[in-house]
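ingest -> fold -> write
write: protein_1
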Amino acid sequence: MPRKPISQYHPALYFIAVWLRRLHRYVAWYGDGRRYAAAQSTEKLAYQVKKHQSVLIKKLGDSDKHLQINKITNLKIAAQPINGLIIRPGEVFSFCRRVGLPTRRKGYLTGMELSFDQARAGVGGGICQLANLIHWLVLHSPLTVTERHHHSFDPFPDDGRVLPFGSGATVFYNYGDYQFTNHTPYTFQINLWFSDKCLEGELRVDTVLDFAYHVFEQKHRFLKINNVFYRQNEIWRHKKERFKSGEILATELVTRNFARVSYVPETYEEGTDADRP
């Protein structure tokens, strides 16, 4: 088993480690010379690139449903500084910079967060669902993801999963950020809203794009290696001609996932250490 970082042996060491890393990020934010997207508009850009919705309350094992109810409050607070955000050519989107540190003073409640290979309660827990949705929208665009993190384990069996496993993004203020850069000549906009059961969002653009993206999963399987379960897959995307032939213009591997599973899957394959990435 890998050795634990020294910061995990005592709360004070963990606190110091976190704030040293946060300080490093603050220095980067204000000294790296990049232009971070900051303008918001209630007027929507002309054309929709991609729309998606994410169910707010899900069956997550034996977890406390109250934490998911609190999560809805957290998501509504976190969505406010992102809703209507304009990302112009050359600008960078930073989730943590826009949302800020989740605190009780801002109205955040205790929700579920995944940390140190377990699901536990934490202030602001659940806002990763917002990062997941934004990442899915961005995958269907020519925007360039420049920082993304994901969980190293899969804590709950699928319950009505719509998106491929491992297609999301996790955030931990502020050094575990989700960022993308607009290297295109187009201006984009993120819009967010809530229905009775879902967090909903869309990515819009100021110009008609003559191409579109299709994101799909390949080589999905569960493995049992040395009595430990793992989940593995690949996520790919096609860039396709949009209006005429639908021709595939390019194919790209987005990411390979290999994560420990915290439950016993219904079906799995026996694996060996050679199957690890």
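write: protein_2
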Amino acid sequence: MASLGLYMLLIFSCQYTSKTRGSVVTDSKPSATNFIRTSCTATFYPVLCFQLLSIYAGKIQQNEHELARAALSVSLAKAQSTTVFVSRMPKVPGIKPREFQAVKDCIENMLNTVNQLNHSMKEFDLMNRVRVQDFAWHMSNVQTWVSAAVTYENTCIDGFSGPLLEGRVKAAVKRRVFTVVQVTTNALALVNQFMERHQATIAPINIP
């Protein structure tokens, strides 16, 4: 009887532990997604921001650095896939000379976008290792490169201005590139938010 009682106690303990662990995992998910949702309100496109970043809630949790990094990573991935897409446009049957030139310029701008975002990702990955006094300088570099990426993206879209460029090539390119603009703009907003909140937590240095 004593053995049976001990056996039942062990089963109950295992079930309780399992339920407890399950509740912890379940509770952490909403807090992470709520953190992302709230943070995304600081962006220009909050719905898109939450849609793309909530996928990484398990990685982000409530970490502002991981949130901004995820936003940059998503932006880079979107820019890379869009660059591949635009690079195929010159082969579209019946493409007009003006469209061809606009696409060619857009490809160059999107390659520059990818380059700028690559720089920003590498610089941002240094943030957990830099000295406090160097933080603002490194973050300024990230902001500059992400801002430049947005400029290149918009320059691509501007290249299709004018009635002579109306058509399916323009529509397809603008639709894809504008999504990259939205994602990159959101990433910049989250990078700015991370910088502001991080600096607010740094105690001022008293210089004698």
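write: annotation protein_2
The longest helix spans residues 2-40.
Residues 47 and 152 are 24 Å apart (CA to CA).
pipeline exit 0
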